[in-house]
Every structure is written in C-alpha cells, then in structure tokens.
Amino acid sequence: MTMATIEVARYAGACYGVERALDMAYTAAKDASGPVNTLGPLIHNPLVVQDLAREGVSVVDDVEQADSGTVIVRTHGVVPSVVDRARERGLAVVDATCPYVKKVHHAARRLVSEGFQLVIVGEAGHPEVEGILGAAGGSALVVQEASELESVELSRRVGVVVQTTQTASALSRVVAAIAPRVSELHVVNTICEATSERQQAARELASSCDCMIVIGGKNSANTCRLAQICTEACRNTHHIEDSDEMLSSWLEGVEHIGVTAGASTPSSHIKRACERLQMLLDAR
Ligand code: F3S
C-alpha cells in the first residue's frame, strides 16, 4: 500500500480573537480570586467548555447570576450596560471581546455621533449584533438582505457597518440598495477575513483529498459550514468534535487526507487529530 499523506489546511482552527479569549480565560482561572464565570459559553466547542469547567471556569447566562468574583465577556462582545451592571455588582470584568468586534463598535459609535443613520448588516438577535446596537446607542436598522430595506424610510445620510462574520456579497447587496436612495453613504467594511480564509482553504484542500476531517463543535455554525463546503468537494468528509470519533474504515484505500477546523477549535485539537490519524494509518 502507498504511504498516505495528511495535510492541514492553510488556514484552520482558532482565529486570533478566540485564541486571545482562551488565553484570557485560562489566565483568569489561574490568577483570579473568587469564582470565574463566562457570560454565555466562551466558544461553541463543548470540549473546551468542559476543559474550562475543570479549571474552575463556569458559565452563567446573565450578570445577575454571578454573585462575586470575575465575569468574562466573550469574543462577540456585549451591550455596554452589561459591563456597567457587572461593575455595579462588584464583579471584576475580563473583557475578551475580539478587537475586530471592538472596531465595529467604534465605527458604529462614530457614524452615529457624526449624524449618520446607522445600518448594521447582520443577523438580528445575534449577540455580536446586539453588542454593536448597544454600542451605537440602540438606534440602528439591522438588515441581512437588501429586500428588508424596501419599506424602510432612510435619512439623507446613511452609515453602514457589518457583523464580522457576514460575507462581502451580503454587504455589497445592501450597499447597492441604499446608494441610489441617499445623498451621502459612508460604508465601513468591518468583515473579518478569518471565516472566508478558512472556507477558501478548506474548499481548495478538499478538492485534492479523498478523505477530509473537519474538527469542531457540532453546535458551531462556522464548523458546520466548513463541513458542508468540504462535503461538496469530497464525499468522504467527516465532522468530528474529538479525535477518538475517527474510524479506520474512513481511511480504506485513501491516499491524501485533509484536515481543517472551525474558528473555535484550539490548535491542540488539530494536533491530536493528526496524531490519531497517523496511528490509524500506521495500523492499516
Ligand atoms: Fe475576531 Fe474574526 Fe475571530 S472577528 S473572534 S478574529 S472570526
């Protein structure tokens, strides 16, 4: 049998914001006095959430559920009033909001203070979008599709920001619908490339592989999307949360195995999966 090769996608696994948030959470677990809680699960990865729990970091849904100690704000960010409320309750706050999300907050605030009507391209109700809305003072239109603007009155000066995980084409469609209706349009492109880089790299790799392993939470939207993209290019694609889910039957007759992982998957999980793959290959 020819030797099979394992290749990890050029962009795979935890993005800058998630790595940073994980570092901050583990540091808080080590150094903070009193209980440490994250406001909502830190990332959509059950293994990581369990590991944090072992280190003493629990999850609360609301600041009111934490009576003392430290609360950690996750990468999505929160409405500023949540941080104010935590401080009022005497809690220490570790703000792990991704700096790229903070940039959206600043842009939204600036546009509102300069008198623009604010449009946020994003998913209504998503925690990141709620945080942007809050940072902008609560008055903005949230739209995902240009059609949602049809019955809406627009002012003469409109400013646009985008949820970091939206696509460039969603932004373009909304901007194209607004432009003819206003006299001034200020667009701040706040899309983060981490998602599209991972998708592009996964698509390229999957098209040259006869088995693809996608690692990440089953509850992680961006990992599920990666698995879908890989399946389109390689039917022998498997979405796993942990390396022990892998079966040797997936590797029968396989020569080139690709590995990718969602933006919420730590690099240690990729390493573990590659080691287990090598073990299964050695045993065939
Ligand atoms: Fe930040 Fe982009 Fe990740 S916004 S949390 S680096 S996907």
Q: How are helices and strands ordered from N to C?
A: EHEHEEHEHEHEEHEHEHEEH
Mean pLDDT: 95
Give the quaternary arrangement of the chains: single chain
Strand order of the largest sheet: 1-12-10-11
Unique ligands: FE3-S4 cluster
Number of strands: 12
Q: Which structural class matches the secondary elements?
A: alpha/beta
What are the segments in which pLDDT stays under 50 over at least 5 consecutive residues?
A: none
Estimate the global geometry from the Cα principal axes: flat
Explain the overall architecture.
This protein is an alpha/beta fold and 284 residues long. 39% of the residues lie in helices and 19% in strands. The protein has helices at 16-31, 46-54, 80-88, 99-113, 127-135, 168-178, 193-206, 221-233, 267-282; strands at residues 5-8, 36-39, 57-60, 70-73, 92-95, 117-121, 141-143, 157-162, 184-187, 211-215, 237-240, 256-261. α4 packs parallel to α5 and α7 (193-206) runs parallel beside α8. The longest helix has 16 residues, at 16-31. The N and C termini lie close together (9 Å). FE3-S4 cluster (F3S) binds next to α1, α4 and α7.
